[in-house]
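Hypothesis: this fold can be encoded by more than one sequence.
Test: take the structure tokens below, design a sequence, compare later.
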């Protein structure tokens, strides 16, 4: 190891900060990917059946609005359930601390021992943490919850709504703005580029391998467009 490497600051995300970042990342990437892929699949499928610009625009806008509202509602319900579970766990822990304080102190000591502390140090640390804020200590050590930073369903809902809308706008504009002959290739290239970008962003932010994330995103989007375009073409040829 060089001197520069030894002197360089060690930056690493821990605990709640990493968890919060990954939760936001999950909602944003899921929303953007779903917006890009579902809307692209919809407009490309319709483009396989008709070249009418107003029909493509109507289908794309309907898909955008329905998808963004669905994503927001789904995230709100999901995160609300998680928040309710966290609040219920905190309420139960508060009740146990009030009714069985000594047993809870022993439990906290054991949890600290499981993390590598000696029995003596674990007991002393448990007593100090309990004297400062027993509920906070048990919430973080036993439940893995920060009482001051519970999950927010409205934040997740808005993040998903905005991410889906932003993702859906790209294929929608790509299919209606270019001349008829260029609509499909422009849309395909734009969608694959956007999926490559979201795959790269999610991998970099989550400290994961970039190449697999990019290829997964692009392959899924390409498959969705191929399937819907084929179905639209068959329906259009059949006069449906």
């Amino acid at each position: 190891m060089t001197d520069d490497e030894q002197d360089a600051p060690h930056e690493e995300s821990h605990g709640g900060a990493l968890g919060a970042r990954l939760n936001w990342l999950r909602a944003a990437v899921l929303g953007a990917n779903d917006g890009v892929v579902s809307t692209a699949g919809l407009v490309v499928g319709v483009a396989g059946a008709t070249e009418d610009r107003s029909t493509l625009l109507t289908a794309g806008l309907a898909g955008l609005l329905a998808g963004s509202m669905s994503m927001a509602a789904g995230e709100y319900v999901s995160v609300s359930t998680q928040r309710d579970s966290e609040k219920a766990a905190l309420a139960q822990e508060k009740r146990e601390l009030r009714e069985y304080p000594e047993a809870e102190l022993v439990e906290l000591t054991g949890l600290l021992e499981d993390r590598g502390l000696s029995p003596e140090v674990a007991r002393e640390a448990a007593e100090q943490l309990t004297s400062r804020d027993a509920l906070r200590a048990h919430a973080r050590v036993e439940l893995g919850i920060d009482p001051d930073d519970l999950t927010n369903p409205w934040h997740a809902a808005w993040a998903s709504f905005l991410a889906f809308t932003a993702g859906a706008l790209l294929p929608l504009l790509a299919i209606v703005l270019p001349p008829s002959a260029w609509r499909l290739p422009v849309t395909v290239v734009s969608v694959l580029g956007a999926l490559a970008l979201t795959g790269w962003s999610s991998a970099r932010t989550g400290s994961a391998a970039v190449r697999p994330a990019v290829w997964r995103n692009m392959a899924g989007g390409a498959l969705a467009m191929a399937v819907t375009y084929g179905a639209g073409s068959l329906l259009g040829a059949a006069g449906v």
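Residues 1-17 have pLDDT under 50 and may be disordered. Helices lie at 3-7, 15-49, 53-99, 101-114, 119-143, 153-176, 183-205, 210-237.
Hypothesis status: open.
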